Amino acid sequence: MKIGIFGCGNVGSASANACALRGIGTELVLADKNHALAQAQAEDILHATPFAHPVDVRAGDYDDLAGSAIVMIAAGVNQKPGETRLDLLKRNGEVFAEIIPRIRKAAPDAILLNATNPVDIMTHFAARFSGGGTGRIIGSGTILDTARFRALLAQHLGVSSHSVHANVLGEHGDSEVLHWSGATVGNMPLADFAAQINRPITEDIRAAIDTGVRRAAYKIIQGKGATWYGIGNGMARIAQAILDNESTVLTCCAPVDSVEGVNDVTLSLPRIVSASGIGPAFHPALDDDERAKLKHSAGIIKEALGQLGL
Fold it and tell me: Would you please indicate which residues are annotated as catalytic (active-site) residues?
């Protein structure tokens, strides 16, 4: 299966590299407005395949995306230190207005997998104007935030992150909602498990983990300018679920008719991801505080969408 990657900066190249290392797809085509960058990234990743999987990796242009089962989109301007994701709205909206129609023309049957920030708004933009059918456009959404939440919980508890099930909902950004009330470890409620191993979730621990998840991007950007390894692997994970037709539940973003009274908005909720794309959103049981926070998060995205006239 061919995977196209449009945008070969840190996120696009990390996504392609993660696919190659994990053997996701049989052919990777990297494209970028800067063809020299796409060529350099493709060659660098290709040279690593003897240590991983025999994936064919090459550079191309829009036309070379033809026949792709998935086209990952990681094109756009970078987030600056101190800049919120929503500040990127107008700048990346202009980028998408140029590239989405050309990608869709070259690969009309591909599932589009978007990582460009602000990802909820850019995914809504792509879904509204690119065509391709219901469920054929997926945003990475809070898949990385969910991974951060699980990793930090696992670190506190001293268990594998694979044993932790906890999601982040809403915006991929400042208003995201950590679903504490639904978190489980080894099929036990989080609080019960933590108490039995004498590592309780105190208010201080909860606050530290919340900050660690919610402010992770800002801390990483301050240290090295951008985030790419985490989201690159998140993109590869979504691609794997599509190509293997897993019907697995992931916290990705796509348009939803209504959430907590906010209509026609794109944000992250648990959804089934399979070869047909992304399914309808599931609405997990939330406590009153989480419901209020999710409504607030949806409202922030809705307001930003209004700035684009969406």
Answer: 172
Largest CA distance in the chain: 58
* Residue at 44: amino acid letter: D
- Measured in degrees and rounded to the nearest 5, phi and psi for residue 308 equal -95, 0
For residue 288, give Cα distances in angstroms to 16, 88, 146, 285. Answer: 40, 31, 21, 10
Type of residue at 272: I
Mean pLDDT of 201-226: 94
Q: Which is nearest to 303 in space by CA: 75, 118, 146? A: 118
Burial group, residue 125, by CB count within 10 angstroms (0-12, 13-18, 19+): buried
pLDDT for residue 141: 98
Between 287 and 130, whose confidence is greater? 287
First to last CA, the chain: 34
Which structure tokens are listed for 54?
Answer: 């025999």
Taking the C-alpha atoms of residue 29 and residue 169, their distance in angstroms, rounded to an integer, is 32
Q: What pLDDT is attached to residue 214?
A: 95
Q: What phi, psi does 35 have (nearest 5°)?
A: -65, -35
Check whether 31 has a pLDDT greater than 90: yes
